[in-house]
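> forwarded from #structure-qc
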């Protein structure tokens, strides 16, 4: 009888500890900066967005933003995983917690700030026009009247092309692609007349296809800035990442990564 009594007490203690542990775990998971951010940082990206994030010839994800994220995670003492996502569903991926951050040449916009937290901007980004090499009839935005124009879905360029200002230009068709690489391929093949997109991405593509693509060096729409996005309830992770980014800027690490990918430091200095 005595043995049974001690056994019952022992089981009760174990159950109490399990309940306490379980409650603590659930509370952490429910917190915007709890268990889901205590270990690995999962970076959501479009893996066909060179030079910010893309797959190399060995099918490994690489790029400017990838290098930044790796160094930041290393300084935070946390493992990092890069997860290719449908870029048009990026806000849902972030809100659901399937990814912790969006780090892939993401423009900071007022509309996006309604649903996401952003880091400080780290790079300026213009939208410009790209045409097939040798084409001379497209010199500016007004030249796109009656033309077929391509861009990437869910990009800043798409937002501008869908707006009232660009509609006045009178383009024949706006064709939207899952990524800019496919848009540039159609441009090379003559299926569209121009691509409007991020200058950084377009110029990188140009450097790999110097005989087929050229830029019309005129900004289309407002100049934007790249930032890193976090879930609205994840202020803690945002602040931790921002702190190490500030350190990387101060010690010259970001400048070195920029020089690796762009030949010079084109990041925001202030």
């Amino acid at each position: 009888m005595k043995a049974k009594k001690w056994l019952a007490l022992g089981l009760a203690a174990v159950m109490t500890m399990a309940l306490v542990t379980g409650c603590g775990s659930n509370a952490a998971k429910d917190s915007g900066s709890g268990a889901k951010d205590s270990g690995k940082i999962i970076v959501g990206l479009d893996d066909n967005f060179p030079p910010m994030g893309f797959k190399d010839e060995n099918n490994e994800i690489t790029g400017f933003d990838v290098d930044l994220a790796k160094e930041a995670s290393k300084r935070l003492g946390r493992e990092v995983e890069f997860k290719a996502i449908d870029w048009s569903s990026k806000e849902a991926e972030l809100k659901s917690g399937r990814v912790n951050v969006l780090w892939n040449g993401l423009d900071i916009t007022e509309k996006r700030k309604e649903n996401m937290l952003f880091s400080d901007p780290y790079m300026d980004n213009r939208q410009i026009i790209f045409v097939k090499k040798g084409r001379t009839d497209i010199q500016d935005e007004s030249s796109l009247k009656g033309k077929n124009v391509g861009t990437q879905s869910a990009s800043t360029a798409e937002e501008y092309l869908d707006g009232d200002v660009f509609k006045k230009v009178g383009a024949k068709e706006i064709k939207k692609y899952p990524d800019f690489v496919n848009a540039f391929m159609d441009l090379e093949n003559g299926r569209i007349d121009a691509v409007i997109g991020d200058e950084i991405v377009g110029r990188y593509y140009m450097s790999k296809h110097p005989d087929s693509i050229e830029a019309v060096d005129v900004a289309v729409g407002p100049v934007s800035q790249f930032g890193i996005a976090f879930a609205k309830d994840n202020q803690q992770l945002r602040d931790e990442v921002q702190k190490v980014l500030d350190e990387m800027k101060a010690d010259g690490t970001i400048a070195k990564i920029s020089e690796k990918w762009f030949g010079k430091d084109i990041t925001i200095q202030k």
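QC bot note: Residues 102 and 247 are 20 Å apart (CA to CA). The two ends are 75 Å apart (CA to CA).
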